[in-house]
Every structure is written in C-alpha cells, then in structure tokens.
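Handoff note, outgoing to incoming analyst
You'll be picking up this chain. Sequence as last confirmed:
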Amino acid sequence: MMIKKILPLFLLILSLNSYSETYVCSHIVSWTIKMNNPTIVTNKLIRDGNIFQRPNVQHIYEIYHEDDKFLILDANFGLIGETIFIYIDKETRDYVYSSTGIGRNLNIYEKGKCEVIY
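Most recent structure output, in case you need it:
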C-alpha cells in the first residue's frame, strides 16, 4: 500500500527536476583579453517550463532544440532586429553565446563553460 503512494510521488519529483534546472555559464569577454584586462561575464539561465529566463533581464530564451546532448536557446527582438543564440553541450558543459542584429556594428561571439544546478 505504501509503495503505491511513494511511486507516484517519486515520478513527480523526477518529472519536475527537468523543469527546475539552472545553467550558470561564464566566459571571458574576448576583446578584454587584448586590452590586458580580462573580464569574466556570467549568465544565469533558469528554466521555467519550456523557456529560460535570466534574473533582472527581460529577455525570454525559447528552446530552439533540446535533447540529451544539446540545449539551444534563442531570443529574438524584432523591433530592434537583434537575435541572441545560446548553445550548451550538456556532456562537456561547453557553451557559446552569440548576439547579432541588423544595423549593429557589434556582433558578439563568446565561448565558455557552464555548470548545471538542479
């Protein structure tokens, strides 16, 4: 009788686990290396169902693709013509942050590492 009550609870905990993960990803801003002043940027990406959000940032990162090995997120800003693309290799924890837009002189492409928190 007790097993019948515990099993659904255990399954619920497992299913909620995939909806509560947080990625903490850091990279050295590439142009700061050339200036002999390396600067580390850390992005915290918190899953909220089928999207990810960053604290204190209004961008919503939609899941473009996800499987056991990769997570690819994108955020599009149609009004200003900017796209942010985040690629995370779940096995190696490598991460790429890319931002580009129409009319922007600055295109960003940075590589770093992530840690996952459940």
